[in-house]
Design brief:
The protein has 10 helices and 6 strands; from the N terminus they run αααααββαββαββααα. With 340 residues, it is an alpha/beta fold. α6 links the parallel β2 (166-175) and β3. Residues 16-165 are annotated as: Disordered.
């Protein structure tokens, strides 16, 4: 009997406790949050970079860092846990235009492959798509799954827009190998048009923005293939999304979403693109995720509208996040200042 008891105690002593879970289950590496920007509260946006209007500050430093970094969700898989070691640096030589002003990176720009490209990666709509149907990637135009893993600056600058004292510069970049130069220009023009709209972040008279194509911008807005994006963004919620990675200074716009949009916008790809840019740039400016605050009201631009307009569905994706399980549903809204 003593021998049997000894064996039982040894086996129990070797079992790991609940606190021994791997980082792949508990969140992985999340870039640190930036300090508060001091922006006033836009309609439907955060009153500060971290604070949620219904819950105050995030409940833990890890949640605070996650909210401001723009990394969506908490269920980090192996790819997300390795993001810190695989993320490209913002100072990469491929992030500057050539002296001639060409957006190439030393080799001829690849012609667009969209006409023949198809999704070849694993199903982009994973286990959570069953519970959050609007979060599924809709059918639509062809997408290059994996680009070259480097980016080129799309040439072009702008005068500053907005009157705010908090001044930011940004470059517009596209991953090599996913589209043509004409499509690059269309993407850049769309970004400038969105951010110069008085309903965007300049509408609060706190922020001014300017597009640059040289030097070191405040952040880079980078159109990126879905599989490349999983390095710096992780693949936390098994659904296609974009993100902001503060450690490399990139707003990474998922090309699959740029081409196909999201169910919450009912097929309106143009408005979804406005939302995607404003939401991720909001993270670059220091704002975290928010919940729907009023049944039937306009969704805050910092709500994860790509996945759902229903608080309870977003809660199911991230029970430890700032969104309550209260069933409130909002209407899609792509602007931080929808009324100007």
């Amino acid at each position: 009997m003593l021998a049997a008891l000894t064996v039982v105690l040894l086996v129990q002593g070797l079992r790991p406790g609940r606190g021994d879970q791997s980082s792949a289950e508990t969140g992985g590496n999340i870039p640190a949050a930036a300090e508060a920007s001091g922006s006033s509260s836009p309609q439907g946006a955060a009153a500060g970079p971290i604070v949620d209007p219904e819950h105050g500050a995030a409940s833990s430093p890890a949640q605070t860092a996650q909210a401001a970094s723009g990394i969506h969700g908490t269920r980090t898989q192996a790819a997300g846990a390795q993001a810190a070691s695989t993320a490209p640096t913002a100072s990469s030589a491929t992030s500057s235009p050539s002296p001639s002003g060409d957006a190439s990176t030393g080799s001829p720009t690849a012609p667009s492959t969209r006409s023949s490209a198809t999704r070849t990666a694993p199903d982009p709509n994973g286990e959570f798509a069953k519970a959050v149907q609007n979060g599924q990637l809709p059918p639509g135009g062809p997408v290059v799954d994996t680009g070259n893993g480097s980016w080129h600056v799309v040439p072009g600058t702008s005068k500053p827009f907005g009157k705010g004292p908090q001044r930011y510069t940004f470059s517009v970049e596209v991953e090599d190998g996913i589209q043509s130069k004409s499509e690059d220009k269309a993407f850049a023009d769309a970004v400038v048009g969105i951010l110069s709209d008085q309903r965007s972040w300049i509408g609060g008279d706190k922020v001014s923005l300017q597009r640059v194509d040289s030097g070191k911008p405040s952040f880079r807005i980078s159109l990126t293939s879905p599989m490349t994006l999983r390095g710096p963004c992780g693949h936390n919620i098994d659904l296609e999304s974009s993100c902001y990675n503060r450690s490399v200074g990139r707003v990474l716009i998922n090309d699959a979403r740029w081409v196909r949009g999201a169910g919450s916008y009912n097929g309106d790809l143009g408005l979804y693109r406005v939302y995607a840019i404003n939401h991720e740039v909001g993270h670059a400016l220091g704002f975290g995720h928010q919940a729907c605050a009023e049944k039937g009201g306009l969704a805050p631009v910092m709500m994860q509208q790509t996945f759902s307009l229903d608080n309870s569905q977003l809660f199911a994706l991230d029970p430890d996040g700032p969104v309550p399980n209260n069933g409130l549903q909002c209407n899609a809204n792509p602007f931080p200042y929808p009324r100007g």
